Amino acid sequence: MKGAIWAPIPWSPACRYRGKKTCLVIGHVLMLFICWLLFKGSLDQVKINWDSTSAAMETSMALFYGCGVVFAVSGAVILLNNLWRLVNDQLSEDELIGIRESEEEPIDVPKPL
Fold first, then answer.
1. 23-37, 39-53, 57-71, 87-101: segment of lowest average pLDDT
2. Are the C-beta atoms of 73 and 39 separated by less than 8 Å?
3. What value, to the nearest 5°, has the Cα angle with vertex 99 and ends 97 and 104?
4. N or C terminus of the chain: which is more exposed, having fewer CB within 10 Å?
């Protein structure tokens, strides 16, 4: 074919795979930032409310804000584990997208052959 210009298809499977990985990394980095904000805010509230007690239970208010610290740390650990698996190519292509077509569709059931 004389005069035809051939260019690689920008949406080839390899390009789509790299795009999925890039979007997953960006999403996880943003969620890690949110975990940091939650951790920092909760820790500041724990320090502020260490000596104040709740009216009903008479326990330190730091206990209530400490739950935010625990959540932020545990969420960050889960996100870092997913990023580690992504960097080491331990995630399958199906795991790169967390969106399902239907809420009734099971997450961990393998696709039919």
1. 87-101
2. yes
3. 135
4. C
pLDDT digits (tens, 9 = 90+) for 6-22: 555 666 666 677 888 88
The three-state secondary structure class of 60 is: strand
Q: From CA 50, how far away is CA 63, in angstroms rounded?
A: 8
Question: What CA–CA distance (Å, rounded) separates 60 from 71?
Answer: 19
CB 96 within 8 A of CB 21: yes
C-alpha pair distances (Å), 38 with each of 16, 71, 99, 104: 33, 9, 25, 31
List CB contacts of 102: < 8 A, sequence separation 6 or more. Answer: none
Mean pLDDT over residues 62-69, rounded?
Answer: 90
Q: Is 35 exposed, middle or buried (0-12, 13-18, 19+ CB in 10 A)?
A: buried
Predicted local distance difference test score (pLDDT) of residue 61: 84
Task: Read off the pTM.
Answer: 0.71
